[in-house]
Write a structure and sequence with these properties.
The complex is a heterodimer of chains A (217) and B (223). Chain A has 1 helix and 11 strands. Chain A is mainly β and 217 residues long. Chain A has an 11-stranded mixed β-barrel with strand order 1-2-3-4-5-6-7-8-9-10-11. In chain A, strand 2 and strand 3 form a beta hairpin. The longest helix of chain A is centred in the first third of the chain and has 17 residues. Chain A is globular and about 45 Å long. The two termini of chain A are 34 Å apart. In chain B, strand 4 and strand 5 form a beta hairpin. A 9-stranded antiparallel beta sheet of chain B has the order 1-2-3-4-5-6-7-8-9. The two termini of chain B are 54 Å apart. Chain B folds into 2 domains: 38 residues, no CATH class; 164 residues, Nuclear Transport Factor 2, Chain: A (Roll), CATH 3.10.450.360. Chain B is an alpha+beta fold and 223 residues long. Classes of the chains: A mainly beta (217), B alpha+beta (223).
């Protein structure tokens, strides 16, 4: 199983590197989560984007604050706000609504995330998006991801967007190698590949090298 | 020029010269403020990771059968026959134990052994609705009293007994000498918070013990 996943990741990254017209960048993020009474929690995320193309410009910073509540042992509803600070451009605002189910199986965890968001502000028209993400966490030793152990995180997301009357579909695929620092902290490093505008004439391909820290407070 | 600082207990010191010495060295190395900030952040990260490295946790790791005591492997192979057996070592704060997991005749078995290979129990997953009705009535009555609103997520039948007596069950012999318990995973909402518990009941549905299962962090799958 582990060998198979390794092979898939190697083949995927090889085929991605072999492709032309892919823009590359860095996508580091810090994620802090604070549990509150009665299954409420707040989540703060700071994410930066740095281009690795030509002039290697710093692109933007996203700051988001989500409030969530468990509506079952495995299901959560989250709502919040994201502030986008583009480098040299006008601010954008985003309202976020999500419903997440995390299923625990004997040797993996599977998460379904259904989401909607509305991005507005600046001179750009409002963008409405509907999205679904399937992601899994697979332990690399034992049947559970315990502290001081590595894991794989694989994900696939479909993002439907509507801007004025133009519809677009973005497909995302991600493969991360993670490490559990302690029961309240996880580190991840990997690739986030995004394919969009393929419904029109020329597809847009972006690959982000991600580095995420999740810290529960 | 080398400057020497000797600290004597009970004496107040003016640390300005030391600060000046340190900052002047950074300036002489052409370190910008940005680099200094990265350096401080790097030091913080290193000390954070070092602090984490000193902590100990319970964990389960996959092991080869060669790493498991011989008596445990022998019993498991005899009990499960030609099934594909996966071995795990469970490391706790006070020691370790071994666990074999395999499927046989559509049953998912889990066999636990102590560190020296002594058999502790055999468990296999059952449908909770298939627990004998009299026992189930007792169990449900207890859970209703203890938790009010609950849902049984998973049930396991647990066999405890002598190795030879347990091996007789492989041949289909019903063995009255065995201790049979039911281990249930139960979800309940307590004071507005969803919690997962593991309950142990005897064969006739008498409560033995329970504890809360601490769920692992899933923030990276949610956000």
């Amino acid at each position: 199983m582990k060998k198979r996943i390794c092979c898939i990741l190697v083949l995927l990254s090889h085929s991605l590197f072999a492709q032309q017209n892919i823009s590359w960048g860095l996508l580091p993020s810090l994620n802090f989560n604070k549990k509150l009474p009665r299954d409420w929690s707040v989540n703060f995320k700071a994410e930066g984007r740095q281009s690795l193309q030509d002039e290697k410009n710093y692109l933007q910073t996203d700051l988001s604050l989500l409030s969530s509540r468990k509506v079952g042992l495995s299901s959560t509803i989250a709502m919040g706000y994201l502030l986008r600070l583009p480098n040299g451009d006008e601010l954008r605002n985003r309202l976020i609504q999500q419903f997440i189910i995390v299923r625990r199986y004997s040797a993996l965890k599977l998460s379904h995330r259904f989401g909607a968001d509305q991005t507005f502000g600046g001179d750009e028209p409002t963008v409405y998006r509907l999205r679904y993400r399937l992601s899994s966490e697979i332990p690399l030793s034992g049947q559970e991801v315990d502290p001081k152990e590595f894991f794989f995180k694989l994900g696939n997301e479909y993002v439907n967007s509507l801007e004025e009357s133009a519809f677009d579909l973005e497909i995302r695929g991600l493969g991360f190698l993670g490490y559990v620092l302690n029961p309240k902290a996880k580190l991840e490093f990997g690739l986030d590949y995004r394919l969009s505008s393929f419904l029109k004439t020329s597809a847009r391909q972006r690959s982000w090298i991600g580095f995420n820290l999740y810290q529960s407070l | 020029m080398v400057q020497e600082f000797i600290l004597r207990p009970g004496t107040e010191y003016d640390l300005k010269p030391l600060y000046k010495l340190l900052t002047s060295n950074f300036v002489s190395l052409n370190c910008s403020n940005k680099m200094l900030r990265y350096f401080v952040l790097f030091l913080f990260l290193i000390s954070y990771l070092q602090a984490l490295a000193q902590q100990k946790y319970e964990r389960e790791i996959g092991v080869l059968s060669e790493e498991v005591p011989e008596n445990a492997v022998e019993f498991t192979e005899e009990f499960l026959g030609k099934s594909r057996i996966k071995w795990f070592k469970e490391e706790g704060l006070e020691g370790y134990s071994f666990e074999a997991k395999a499927r046989k005749n559509r049953r998912k078995y889990s066999i636990e052994f102590s560190a020296d290979g002594k058999l502790e129990d055999i468990e296999f997953i059952v449908q909770w609705r298939n627990i004998p009705s009299n026992s189930l009535k007792h169990i449900q009555k207890y859970l209703e009293r203890d938790l009010e609103i609950y849902k049984i997520k998973k049930a396991q039948e647990q066999w405890i007994g002598d190795k030879n007596e347990l091996l007789k069950t492989v041949k289909g012999e019903i063995n009255e000498e065995l201790t049979i318990n039911y281990e249930l995973e139960v979800v309940a909402k307590i004071d507005g918070v969803y919690k997962l518990f593991e309950y142990l009941f005897s064969k006739d549905g008498t409560y033995i013990r329970h504890y809360e299962v601490i769920l692992q962090m899933t923030d990276n799958l949610i956000y």
